[in-house]
Design brief:
The complex is a heterotrimer. By secondary structure, chain A is of the alpha/beta class. Chain A contains 13 helices and twelve strands. Chain B is mainly α. Chain B folds into two domains: about 30 residues; about 230 residues, Orthogonal Bundle (MetI-like fold). Chain B is built from 13 helices and no strands. In chain B, helix 6 runs antiparallel to helix 9, helix 9 runs antiparallel to helix 12 and helix 11 runs antiparallel to helix 12. Chain C is mainly alpha-helical. Chain C has a single domain, classed as MetI-like (MetI-like fold). A two-stranded antiparallel ribbon of chain C has the order 1-2. The chains are: A alpha/beta, B mainly alpha, C mainly alpha.
């Protein structure tokens, strides 16, 4: 008697709940803090949709999107043409936010730290191994640098953050470009691999004399010191939302041909932060599909109302020209 | 004289040996207590009623809970059990009763292999088998992955328990004219129920603590759901995701989750032990029930 | 008579179908792994096992660093755990009074029931800082001349992973050893005691020597468990495909690299990862088969006596 009741209950509970449209997405860890906030805020007002986002890395998001196991992906490194071809149907990249990839470090007493791409590339190539190396001293003459080894932390999983970081280093450090190249997953010669922005942050904050690349929100939320990077103008810029906005605004019509797969890394312009990145949501348009319609409404909300929450979580609000492009695309 | 020294040397070796054994035992027990103490101190402060009934809150907001993960683990382990228990029991009975033929030997070999397969490979297999063709992460895939892990444990323990039943009991049943399957079911199987239940409880405990098979199959979720065809959160995966995050509030939640998970798995294992040694436990249990006034004394 | 035969035939048929299903599922698993790793096998062939390169950008993969990582961590874990586990098994069976012995056995089995993810978390947040701040400097101070203790210590790496694996395989080795020790006829022990042996000598002569094959089998089973462990190792090993003599350096094992890279791998990388998985599978089969043969032969020896 009891067992029959339990079985009936289980059967009822396992029936699909038709109350809300459920949309699943996965991808970038870069966007995770603000996307989870957007989902929470949006669902408060729109109870007819439920969004489930898992941060498994940009590479994971793209792969699951190609395998069609998720409804939308999020990535900091746009899909290549051959990847888009694998999907079979048209793929739209819709930028929703902008952020900075910072170089965070954990050295006692070092509050201001300047780096340029040559030195930074050499650190991640393993050529510079100690904090008091001459090249570092040259950039930071007044800093007190310990003589300990540099503990490099990088990503173990396929990451859009890695793609942006390696893109910057490849563009400006020739040896890095030839030895390592750029991509979501590269063959790092040194360093320990941590999982996700979260893992690198945890590693750097817990390990003295460590250095790693993480997204701005993660660095600020965990009170990690970040380095000032030299941009194309010759200035050493600290990562901040405004510096990212300047980098995005420096993009001219010529660079940006209407295909929203653009990069704002190494932007020219006074005060621009060189390692800035756009994050895209990748969707396949399916007009009439309930999930796609919910997603459309959500994305519209993100690029308009959602942007108000950007600064509080240390993301740069999406540049106006991208907002209008996205709205036009998903009309 | 020499004999005396030799005798002392033997005594010395004996004492050193005993010391070594005591040291071994201490070293082996040390990590156990360290781990439990560490998890408890970090997690116990975040355990409150909310933890068990609320959903997680976004970054920056304190509070929230892992209700969806706890429910998800229970749900997926149940699904796994519904698949693995019938299959496992049948195979175990087959091996114990008809265990000589070629099929039986192959089955035994395969079950041994399955018990040694790393859980990550079970995850990959389930991903390729269920997630990719149906194009969605689902609780069903998670349950299937867990059932593959539960299966060898159930089969082996059932086989061992049933083999302990002496042959003359089976012969007695057959001599009374019962068909073989009735002998197996009503006499052998029902007689060894406690041992079989122990095996099942151990398998459930093992499945509840597994992470790798669920990573690629059930993914995870941020909402409570009982839908087989959608991603579902589970306690180990949720703990993993939260613990490596750099947000302090989430890390505290992860430790609380770890306390709940350990309590669950440990509790199940101890239950299994209690079932086996119930002769020792039942008197204490009865005394406790009387003391707590839950059952009236029969002789008053 | 005929009815019984029919009923029995039906039940036997059902049981055989289930058995065949399970066997088929295992074959499906192996075949699927094989199918997905076919591109990698065709591209790299035997070189896969001898190359240390793991370059997703240029699609060049080799599993040697992972095989090295697996072997190193498992062997080190075994070296640490085997003497301790055998000692504990002897302690429980022979030295302690029955009740205390059962209590200790209960505690050892509780180690086995701690989920591997909790081990990983404990390793990452407790053991790794401890190694970085206390153990590594001490080791470097006293044994720094050995190549095993060179280089900086992040806290995570081969040493930490081996320590955690050692804790995890202890219950396995202990329980099998206990079974083996219980199976020895008490006559041997009584004979040794009657001749005036101390407890140490009794155990050495009458318990350890005869069950040597069983102990070896237990050790091999523990090795198999260490080889397949995924989550705990993935969290504390540092995920760097390097081969290094230093125990402090980060590395990767076959199981950990699959766990870390599978979610976003595609194309040749997925194929290579499945090839690594296939290799891991065969190694596990080999080790488990070896263990069971050794134990089985050892037990048969006793049956003849």
């Amino acid at each position: 008697m009891c067992t029959k009741f339990i079985l009936a209950l289980a059967l009822i509970l396992s029936l699909p709940t038709f109350a809300a449209v459920k949309v699943t997405g996965a991808g970038s860890t870069f966007i995770y803090p603000i996307l989870s906030k957007w989902i929470a805020e949006y669902e408060k007002k729109n109870t007819d949709s439920q969004f489930n986002y898992q941060s498994i890395g940009s590479g994971g998001g793209i792969k699951q999107f190609i395998d069609k196991t998720i409804d939308f992906g999020a990535t900091d490194d746009f899909m290549k043409d051959d990847e888009i071809a694998k999907v079979g149907s048209p793929v739209w990249h819709l930028p929703v936010t902008m952020g900075a990839v910072t170089v965070a470090y954990n050295v006692k007493g070092l509050s201001e730290f300047k780096l340029d791409s040559q030195v930074l590339g050499d650190i991640f190539l393993g050529k510079i191994t100690h904090w008091d190396d001459a090249a570092i001293k040259k950039l930071n003459p007044k800093a007190v640098l310990p003589s300990t080894e540099i503990l490099v932390v990088r990503r173990a999983d396929g990451s859009g953050t890695t793609a942006v970081f390696t893109q910057f280093l490849s563009a400006t450090n020739a040896e890095f470009a030839s030895k390592i190249g750029k991509g979501k997953s590269v063959n790092w010669p040194v360093g320990i691999g941590a999982k996700g922005n979260e893992g690198v942050t945890a590693m750097v904050s817990q390990t003295e004399n460590a250095i790693g690349y993480i997204e701005l929100a993660y660095a600020l939320n965990n009170k990690l010191n970040t380095a000032k990077i030299k941009n194309q103008n010759g200035e050493f810029i600290a990562p901040s939302e405004d510096a990212v906005t300047i980098a995005a605004n420096a993009l001219t019509e010529a660079d940006y041909k209407g295909d929203l797969r653009v990069s704002i890394v190494n932007a020219k312009g006074k005060g621009a932060y060189p390692i800035s990145a756009l994050t895209w949501l990748i969707v396949t348009p399916k007009p009439g599909d309930a999930k796609y319609d919910s997603l459309k409404k959500f994305i519209n909300w993100i690029v308009t109302d959602g942007q108000k929450m950007s600064k509080e979580l240390h993301y740069a609000p999406l540049a106006k020209k991208f907002v209008s492009s996205v709205q036009n695309k998903i009309k | 004289m020499k004999k005396y020294y030799y005798y002392l040397l033997r005594k010395l070796k004996n004492i050193i040996f005993h010391l070594a054994l005591y040291t071994c035992a201490t070293i082996v027990l040390l990590p156990l207590f360290l781990i439990i103490k560490y998890v408890m101190t970090k997690g116990i402060s975040s355990i409150n009623w909310n933890f068990f009934v609320q959903m997680p809150k976004p970054v920056g907001e304190i509070g929230g809970g892992m209700a969806h993960a706890i429910a998800g683990t229970i749900y997926m382990v149940t699904v796994a059990g519904l698949i693995a228990i019938p299959v496992g029991l049948t195979c175990g009975i087959y091996l114990a009763e008809y265990g000589q033929g070629k099929l039986a030997r192959t089955l035994r070999f395969c079950v041994d292999l399955l018990s040694g397969v790393p859980s990550i490979i079970v995850g990959i297999f389930t991903y390729a088998l269920i997630v990719m063709p149906f194009k969605t992460f689902s609780a069903f895939a998670g349950g299937t992955g867990l059932s593959i892990i539960m299966l060898p444990i159930i089969v082996k323990s059932t086989e061992e328990i049933l083999k302990l039943v002496p042959d003359h009991i089976r012969e007695a049943g057959l001599a009374l004219g019962l068909p073989r399957w009735k002998v197996i079911y009503y006499i052998v199987f029902k007689g060894s129920l406690s041992g079989i239940v122990t095996g099942i409880v151990l398998a459930i405990a093992r499945a509840g603590g597994e992470t790798a098979p669920l990573l690629f199959t059930a993914l995870s979720a941020t909402h409570l759901s009982f839908n087989l065809t959608e991603p579902m959160a589970s306690l180990p995966v949720q703990i993993y995701n939260y613990a490596i995050s750099p947000f302090a509030s989430w890390q505290e939640q992860a430790w609380a989750g770890a306390v709940v998970l350990i309590a669950l798995v440990l509790g199940l294992n101890l239950t299994a032990k209690a079932i086996v040694h119930r002769q020792i436990f039942y008197p204490y249990l009865q005394k406790m029930i009387l003391v707590l006034g839950l059952e009236k004394r029969k002789n008053i | 008579m005929k009815i019984s035969n029919r009923e029995d035939a039906v039940s036997l048929f059902l049981m055989k179908t289930m058995a065949a299903l399970v066997v088929a599922m295992l074959f499906a698993l192996i075949l699927l792994l094989f199918k997905v790793s076919l591109p990698a096998i065709k591209t790299f062939g035997f070189k896969f096992i001898t190359s240390t390169e793991w370059n997703p950008v240029e699609d060049r993969f080799g599993a040697l660093s992972f095989i090295f990582g697996t072997c190193l961590t498992s062997t080190l874990a075994l070296l640490m755990a085997a003497p301790l586990s055998i000692g504990v098994a002897l302690f429980i069976n022979e030295v302690l009074p029955k009740r205390l012995g059962n209590l200790l056995a209960l505690f050892v089995e509780m180690i086995a029931s701690i989920p591997s993810i909790v081990f990983g978390l404990w390793g990452l947040f407790f053991l790794a800082p401890w190694i970085k701040t206390l153990a590594a400097p001490w080791l470097k101070l006293h044994f720094g001349f050995l190549p095993f203790f060179n280089g900086p210590s992040f806290g995570i790496g081969f040493l930490t992973a081996s320590l955690i694996l050692a804790v995890m395989i202890t219950p396995t080795i202990t329980s099998v050893c206990r079974e083996v020790f219980k199976a020895i006829p008490p006559l041997q022990k009584e004979a040794a005691l009657a001749l005036g042996a101390t407890r140490y000598e009794t155990l050495k002569i009458a318990v350890l020597s005869p069950s040597l094959s069983g102990i070896v089998g237990a050790i091999v089973l523990g090795f198999g468990r260490a080889v397949g462990e995924t989550m705990a190792v993935a969290m504390v090993i540092g995920n760097s495909a390097t081969i290094s003599a230093s125990l402090f350096s980060p590395g990767a094992t076959m199981a950990s690299v699959i766990a870390n890279e599978y979610p976003e791998a595609s194309g040749l990388q997925i194929s290579s990862l499945c090839f690594v998985g296939l290799l891991l599978f065969f190694i596990t089969i080999f080790i488990n088969g070896l263990a069971r043969t050794i134990i089985w032969r050892g037990q048969n020896k006793w049956r003849r006596v």
